[in-house]
Amino acid sequence: MSIPDDLRFTKTHEWVRDNGDGTVTIGITAHAAEQLGDVVYWEGPEEGAQMAVGDPLGTVESVKAVSDVYAPLAGEIVENNAGLEDAPETVNSAPYGDGWMVRLKLDDADALGSLLDAAAYKAAIGA
């Protein structure tokens, strides 16, 4: 399983991409998508919603389970991935690409450093 080196990760299997403009893109890792099985539904937060670390960002439903996705960082939701409404399976086929879930305007850009780097995430999942 390929884990991109340019992302940050959480122990609860969310990934974060720094967009370089004070926003981040968030999704679930390939490992999480594999564990869930075929994703059939994604329900994200309202744009403009304020998130604290650990708040539920949304719910992902698969053929196996329903799971919450948690905010790895604090900030304001600026975009939901509308493409997941019609094609939730994109979470499985392109978890680090078109399968992203939300974009968040960070309250504190320095908080990115508190997340796992790719090597630490690989170690956490035994990859």
State the distance separating the first and last CA atoms: 8 Å
In percent, how helical is the residue content? Answer: 10-25%
Count of DSSP strands: 9
CATH homologous superfamily heading = RNA polymerase II/Efflux pump adaptor protein, barrel-sandwich hybrid domain
Can you tell me the CATH topology?
A: OB fold (Dihydrolipoamide Acetyltransferase, E2P)
The proportion of strand residues reads 25-35%
Number of helical stretches of at least 4 residues: 4
The coarse overall form would be globular
Read across the widest sheet, the strand sequence of neighbours is: 1-2-3-9-8-5
Q: Mind explaining what this structure looks like?
A:
- This protein is of the alpha+beta class.
- The protein has one domain: OB fold (Dihydrolipoamide Acetyltransferase, E2P), CATH 2.40.50.100.
- Helices cover 18% and strands 34% of the residues.
- The protein has 4 helices and 9 strands, in the order βββαβββββααβα.
- It has helices at 30-36, 83-86, 90-93, 118-125, and strands spanning 8-9, 14-18, 23-28, 39-43, 50-51, 56-62, 66-70, 75-80, 102-106.
- The strands form 2 sheets. It has a 6-stranded antiparallel β-sheet.
- Strand 6 and strand 7 (66-70) form a beta hairpin.
- The longest helix has 8 residues, at 118-125.
- The protein starts with 7 loop residues before the first strand and ends with a helix.
- The model has no long low-confidence stretch (mean pLDDT 95).
